[in-house]
Request: fold
Amino acid sequence: MSTPREEILKQVRRWMRYGDEDLRLAKGALSLKPCPYRLAAFHAQQCAEKYLKAYLLHEDIDFAYSHNISYLLELAAEKAPWGDKLAEADRLSRFAVTLRYPGEDSRVTRSETELAISLATSVRREVRRACK
Reply:
C-alpha cells in the first residue's frame, strides 16, 4: 500500500508530465505555417502553471486553482529557493485565458511566443531541480 507521501509524489510527477506535454506542443507549434502564436503561448503558460502547481503539491502548500502565475509564484516563494529568479514568468498570465476566445484575443508575435517558451522552460528547470 502506498504512503500518503508516495501518492503526493505520484501526483507531482503527473502534473510535470502534463506540463511537459504543453511545452512540447508550444515548441512544435513554432514549425507550423502559419503558426498559431497565441495557442503556442497559451501552452507555454500552461506548462509553467502545471510545474508551479507540481511544486506547491511537492511542498504541501495549498493553492486555489488559478491560471495566475503571479499568484502561484507568490505561494511558492514561501519555500522556493528560486523565488526572485522566476519573477518574470508572471508575464505568462496574459496567455492563460483571454487569448483563447474570439473578442478577447490580441495579436501575439513570434518573439512573444519565443519568450513565453523560454520563461516556461525556466520554470520547468527550476521546479525539476527543487523536486528531486
